[in-house]
Every structure is written in structure tokens, then in C-alpha cells.
């Protein structure tokens, strides 16, 4: 039996999205980004569905080990690299490809002893994001140290990351591109720059490896374009159930703090999902859900386990009725994110272990 709340993940949609992406970046290899539990979709299942990727990428060592222990065999890139000598040794043991983004990480190479050398590694270059990366000035020395290390057997790829790729035509994207091209001219090695938004809008940034995350899950990185405009299919449908329906009379209030007050007799439904599942509290009095294809407003504050919705405009509806929180025509995750004043990345990542994941079309 299904339990609610539940996130249904359409594995065929993920496969479609990867295929579509490969057509858009047909000369590049694909590093599918499945950090943060595959953007909340379930990292192991997503890795299995996206087996046509050339590599996977996660942020942390623990995420990579989880994938290896589940039998995922493909190359796995550690986007934040390693943070100790022990982690470096583990990365080698688990055949991972760390990114080196800071001298502290490069220095670990002098202190580590690994049975197996590291295979493919990456050097992160700072080009404008100012978050992780070795400066352009230091890049040559860093590249040489990595190349000369006995602990690295494979190639050293060069990586950088756009800060504004979701802003189409932003001059800063061209500036970052110019910076990376300077480094590219110094070495004949593989280069990776583009995340989802850049893959879609900055074709010159595709280079040897693209690094899609969001788009694989069928979510648009652009505020003014939907996933289907871009040819992608949303993978996640997030649902809960109505557990109570009551009449609320004029001047009576709903929920903590009484932030919503009835102005006429209203039919209020209580839905079994809350911020304790990852349904954003910022949707209090702002969000809407979809019931039988119709938009229905969230009224009052989102509580830990429940939300209330105004069913007054709905015809027949009973306790047990399914409610779509996002993932259908009426409520896309992009629109819900806009209502919550955030980005869809946060909403899907926030779904926690209390929400069952159901995989279909595998
Ligand atoms: C998360 C991440 C990506 C994927 O970004 P999307 O916008 O989800 O496509 C790519 N590269 C790096 C370095 C990242 O941290």
C-alpha cells in the first residue's frame, strides 16, 4: 500500500532528459550531477537510471561511498574534493576522481600513502565565482604539482563554474569564458565548465565535459522558460492526502498565529504534509496545490506535519482525496519555488526521508 506523502519519480523521464541533453551537447561527455541525494530524487536509483552518463558527480566523499556500496561502478567526481589525508586515501580506494580546488588539498598529496593511485582528477580554476578554485596565476604551478604527483596516475582535467549562467546574455558569463580559454591554451587537457543553464544558453562553454544537474530532473533553470519549453520532462510528482475537512465560519482563524481568517463560510481541508517533510514554510498563506486538476490555495501557516487548503471553490471532495503539491500541469515545481521566494533546487533537495520515494517506468 502507498503511504503519503509520497514523491513519485519517473525514471523514463530522467532517461528522456539525458537523451535530450546529449543531443544538445553532442560533442561533449556527460558528468551527471547527483549530489544531495540526486537533488532529493534518490541518488542510487537515479544513478541506475542514468547509466548512459559518462560519469557521475557528487559533492562529498560520503555521497560517493554510498554509490559505490550500492554497486555503482562508473567514474564518480568529488566536486568539493577531499578534506584530509584519510579522505584522499579513501578516494583512491573507492576509485573516485576528486576535484582539487585549494592548495590545502594539493598539499595532502605529499602526506598520503595510497595503495592505488588516483585515476582521473580535476583542477578547479577560479574564473569569477569566488567560491572554490585556484587563481589563474597559480593554476600552472598547481597543474604541474598534480601532474608530477606519484599518487595521480590519470589525466588532470580543468574545471570552472559559472556564477550567472541562469542569466542569459549576462556579460559576466563571457568574462568567465574568456578566463578559462586563457588556461585552456596553456594545456592540452580536458575542460569542463557548463552546468544546466550554460548547456542550454552558452554553447561555446560545452567543451569536453558538461555537468548537468537540474535539467536531468526535468526542471528549468530559467525563470521565464518551463521545462517543457526546453524539451524536458519533470521527473518528480509530490503528493499528499486530505485527512480532514471542516467548515470554518466568518471571523474564525486557521492555523498557528491565526494568519488566515475566513470572511465567509469556508470549507477547509487539512493535508498531511508540512515543513517536517520538506514542504517549505515560506508557502504559508502563499502557496497553492492541485486537486483534481484545479488550483487550491494554502491558507494559514505551514505546520510541521500539515497544511490547510481552501476547498470552498471545489465541488465534491472527500477525506482521502489526493493532493498534488508539485509536478503536474497546474503546479510545477518552478512555480511553487517562485511562490516560496526560492529556487526549485531548494524545494526538491529539501524533501527528506519522511517522504516515501516511489519509482515508476524503470
Ligand atoms: C551542482 C553543480 C553542477 C550542476 O548544476 P545545475 O545547475 O544543477 O546543472 C555543476 N557543476 C558544479 C561544480 C556543481 O556544484
Q: Roughly how many Å apart are the termini?
A: 19 Å
Q: What are the bound molecules? A: pyridoxal-5'-phosphate
What is the general shape?
Answer: elongated
Q: Indicate the low-confidence ranges by residue numbers.
A: none
From the helix content, strand content and strand pairing, which structural class follows? Answer: alpha/beta
Succession of helices and strands:
EHEHHEHEHEHEHEHEHEEEEEEEEEHHE
Estimated share of beta-strand residues: 15-25%
| Gyration radius over CA | 23 Å
The main β sheet shows up as: 8 strands, mixed
Number of helical elements: 11
Rounded average pLDDT? 96
- Total strand segments: 18
Helix content: 25-40%
Quick structural summary:
Helix content is 27%, strand content 22%. It is of the alpha/beta class and 362 residues long.
What does this structure look like?
The protein is 27% helix and 22% strand. The chain has eleven helices and 18 strands. Strands 1, 10, 13, 14, 15, 16, 17 and 18 form an eight-stranded mixed beta sheet that branches. An eight-stranded parallel beta sheet has the order 8-7-6-5-4-3-2-9. Helix 4 (61-69) links the parallel strand 3 and strand 4 (76-78). It is elongated. The two termini are 19 Å apart. 46% of the residues are buried. The mean pLDDT is 96. The structure holds pyridoxal-5'-phosphate. Pyridoxal-5'-phosphate binds at residues 33, 35, 79, 161, 195-197, 211-214, 221. Residues 33, 35, 79, 161, 195-197, 211-214, 221 line the site of pyridoxal-5'-phosphate.
